[in-house]
């Protein structure tokens, strides 16, 4: 967080970071006569992402939603196939399954983290399970060891929805690189952004060649551009998942500022943790935390209020003080499309209760000390 | 086309137009703290597109490929369903079918236009046909009357792939607005561009509400943003088809310059038509033309050489003179994925021959008189 005054107006929930060099990069794209996908900024941003994540294969995509769709295509998901995923996540994790005609099977969460509960996953797995999709909520790693113990003996690949978790670490391993696939988001609510964008990390060699074709409208255009074939043509299923160089140019500037972004976000996170511990303890409020050995990504900070009424009251209390807080996600199993397309083994009470109690506080890299103080004062002046 | 010298270097095949105000618009996006989808530039570009096309409902998308996918989702295409489409088109028209698990059925073309031949379509239609997909090659309208005569009695919707045809008119009707859906491309090889981008024109009210949900990751977020619901949740299948405001900002500037772009492109097209008529007549070369009542979009200009060897020789002859010409598309029915996923009633000889004879000349809005002359001299110095 930065020093100085908050100025007037509300403390917004989220505000995209502005990295040095964004406009200069965009100017270069316009002058270069190459603003479609896979130009110099895509190459540079991809290299930076490889560096940050340590992943061997990184493909920029038009969104995290599309990275998840690519994983579904690479796994050849189809009607009759099932994918187990947490009910507490963003709808894209489920649409990526449903658009292939496959069935999402919802699992409950661990109430300490909001992450999928391996025991609930074990209950949901059947002979039809073709993948386990996991989301690292707030960049706190899900229990990958326990999930791998379920998945590996059955030969089921794990998909990591790492939209929140760029930079997160679990027992020395970087998030997004443990499953067969890791999906990143660069939506402008995320730590690092380019308006709309994403990336697929591929951690299993077998999928690399086909991924390139699927991403390029089902053609071997990538091979053509490398000079390996003298014309390109339709090879496979696919879509158009190349972000334009406009998006890549902004992403490249953002990734260059990644350490700075993370430092600022962590300062806000730490200020919340330090400033709310006593208040939370006194009022039976649970706070976000990361278990030992886990390094979270400072993507978000949340409180779990004692009851649903407290959640609603705190959001209203903060709003009256010009502080915007939020309560998502809405569990997918209870949403209209979840009921229609999905399946669950039993009522997923822990996710429902997590959602009922959750309050997410504003957290972004450009927050001033004064803004952080306003949030802290707002929360601490509330009695659950 | 503009006056002045061509400078050194090759005459490239295509170069994106640079519209006034692009960088200023991008600067505004970065300052606005809203660079994800559906901000002010999306609204403005959408309004301009409605004006240019006359379509009642326009949704910007991340690409034409994705607009075609949206049409497939809105038609609920699935395994067992068939869609008839020309074999002579870009692979995206087929991937949009195949990603739904449906079957592309390829039809032959009319050799005078490269557009799908209604008789071949009639041959390909079965009880399983759920849509007819048509592409207006070079923005010269396909025979929509004949296609509607096949489609309407059977209740089959028409999808217009109008990637080439923004601004094209057929018998007073603007391309992209006759079928149930029109799909536009703003890839930077197109008349109007934003790096990567597209739009879906919806010409049948029934699809509008659901299209909004499919485009927004299967959620009712659009309703939420209008204040019609107090939170949004997972409603339906869907994907993420919102272009970022970065792309919309460039598109808005381009659309503002649409008349200028078209004027310049038409000048190049007219110069080719006038400058090559005699040479073509002498050497048995067919040239691109538009039938009376049709206004093409000046997207491309092509020649059909007498034989395949002439095609190859002309491309090489031009290349030696620093002029880049091209020969796509490669018929889909003969491509690896066409053989695997598709079906055809008979060998599609006319498309194969069209592809074998085709030479596309450089055509872009920024071409100088000198560059056009170099192309004309290059062609006219060739003897088929
Ligand atoms: C009707 C239709 N419907 C839908 C969509 C989807 O739109 P979205 O992108 O918005 O989703 C499109 C999009 N197509 C565009 C261009 O039309 C197309 O030209 C090409 O652009 P490229 O930059 O690859 O190629 P180029 O600069 O035009 O030529 C460069 C060399 O490439 C060789 N080549 C070319 C082709 C095409 C091919 O098949 N095989 C092949 O060996 C020939 C040359 O030497 O690809 C674009 C995406 C479309 O046209
Ligand atoms: C794990 C995971 N996996 C995959 C992806 C796909 O990524 P791509 O986009 O790259 O494809 C995502 C992406 N999600 C992000 C954000 O996480 C998310 O916050 C939201 O941003 P918004 O701007 O809509 O909302 P906001 O500003 O965070 O809140 C504003 C108000 O919206 C209300 N709201 C909010 C939600 C979310 C919801 O369900 N229901 C709901 O009523 C609450 C507030 O009052 O949507 C984004 C796309 C993801 O998180």
UniProtKB/TrEMBL annotation, chains A, B:
One of its GO terms (molecular function) is pyridoxal phosphate binding. InterPro entries: DegT/StrS_aminotransferase (IPR000653), PyrdxlP-dep_Trfase (IPR015424), PyrdxlP-dep_Trfase_major (IPR015421), PyrdxlP-dep_Trfase_small (IPR015422). The modification N6-(pyridoxal phosphate)lysine is found at residue 190. GO terms for biological process: polysaccharide biosynthetic process. Keywords: Pyridoxal phosphate. Pfam families: DegT_DnrJ_EryC1 (PF01041). The active site is at residue 190. Signal peptide: none annotated. Its cofactor is pyridoxal 5'-phosphate. Belongs to the DegT/DnrJ/EryC1 family. PANTHER family: DTDP-4-AMINO-4,6-DIDEOXYGALACTOSE TRANSAMINASE (PTHR30244:SF34), TRANSAMINASE (PTHR30244). This is dTDP-4-amino-4,6-dideoxygalactose transaminase.
């Amino acid at each position: 967080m930065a020093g100085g005054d908050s100025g007037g107006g509300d403390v917004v929930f989220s505000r995209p970071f502005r990295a040095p060099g964004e406009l200069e990069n965009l100017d270069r794209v316009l002058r270069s006569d190459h603003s479609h996908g896979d130009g110099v900024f895509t190459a540079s941003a991809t290299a930076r992402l490889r560096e940050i994540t340590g992943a061997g294969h990184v493909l920029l995509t038009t969104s995290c939603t599309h990275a998840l769709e690519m994983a579904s295509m690479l796994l050849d998901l189809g009607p009759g196939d099932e994918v187990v995923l947490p009910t507490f996540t963003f709808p894209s994790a489920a649409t990526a399954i449903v658009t292939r005609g496959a069935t999402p099977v919802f699992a409950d969460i661990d109430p300490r983290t909001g992450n999928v509960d391996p025991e609930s996953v074990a209950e949901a797995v059947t002979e039809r399970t073709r993948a386990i999709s996991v989301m690292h909520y707030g960049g706190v790693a899900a229990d990958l060891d326990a999930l791998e113990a379920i998945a590996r003996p059955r030969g089921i690949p794990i998909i990591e929805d790492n939209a929140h978790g760029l930079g997160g670490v679990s027992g020395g391993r970087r998030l997004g690189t443990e499953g067969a696939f890791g999906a990143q988001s660069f939506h402008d609510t995320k730590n690092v952004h380019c308006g709309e964008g994403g990336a697929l990390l591929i951690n299993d060699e077998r999928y690399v060649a086909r991924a390139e074709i699927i991403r390029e409208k089902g053609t071997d255009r990538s091979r053509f551009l490398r000079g390996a074939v003298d014309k390109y043509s339709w090879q496979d299923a696919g879509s158009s998942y190349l972000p334009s160089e406009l998006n890549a140019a902004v992403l490249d500037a953002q990734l260059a500022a990644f350490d700075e972004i993370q430092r600022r976000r962590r300062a806000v996170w730490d200020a919340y943790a330090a400033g709310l511990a006593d208040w939370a303890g006194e009022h039976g409020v649970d706070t976000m935390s990361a278990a030992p050995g886990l390094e979270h990504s400072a993507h978000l900070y949340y409180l779990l209020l004692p009851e649903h009424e407290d959640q609603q009251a705190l959001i209203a209390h903060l709003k009256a003080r010009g502080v915007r807080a939020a309560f998502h996600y809405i569990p997918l199993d209870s949403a209209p499309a979840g009921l229609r397309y999905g399946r669950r083994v039993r009522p997923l009470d822990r996710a429902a209760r997590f959602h009922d109690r959750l309050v997410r506080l504003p957290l972004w890299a450009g927050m001033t000390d004064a803004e952080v103080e306003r949030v802290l004062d707002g929360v601490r002046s509330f009695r659950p």
